[in-house]
Amino acid sequence: MLVPSIFGENLFDDWFNFPDFRDLDKTERKLYGRHADRVMKTDVHEHEDHYELDIDLPGFKKEEITIELNKGYLVVSASKGLDEEGKSKKGKLIRQERYMGSMQRSFYVGDNVKEEDVKAKFEHGVLKLCVPKQQEEKLPEKKTILIEG
Q1: CATH code of 33's domain
Q2: How far apart are CA 116 and CA 118, in angstroms?
C-alpha cells in the first residue's frame, strides 16, 4: 500500500503528536538531522581469507575520510564542512539545508590485523575496505600421555 507523502516515511512517526520514548533521542545532528542513524550504511561480505566492507558515504571526498586501526577496532570517520568562500561566489543564500558535521563508525577486526594489511578504495561515494581474517591460533592435537608404573 502506498502512503501519501504527507505522512513522511512512516505513518506512525508523528501520529497525533503523541509523545513516546523515541522522542528522548532526538538530538540534533548537524550533518543529516534527526535521521543520522541512516548514514554510513555498511554491507559486510565474508570470503575465505578476508572480509569486504562497502560503506555508503555520498557527498564526501576522499580527503574528508579517515580510517584508523585502534586496539583491534577499525574506525572509519568522515567529516565535512561547507565552503564559506563559495557562498559569496554563488550569490545570496536564501535557504540552507546542508550543514557541516562529522560521523564515525567502528568495527572490531581483532588485535592481529595491521594497518598495512587493510586495503581501502573510494569510488562513487562508496568506501570499499578489504580486511584480512584474523589468523586463528591452532590448538595442539590431543595427545595421550602414558602413565608409568
Answers
A1: 2.60.40.790
A2: 6
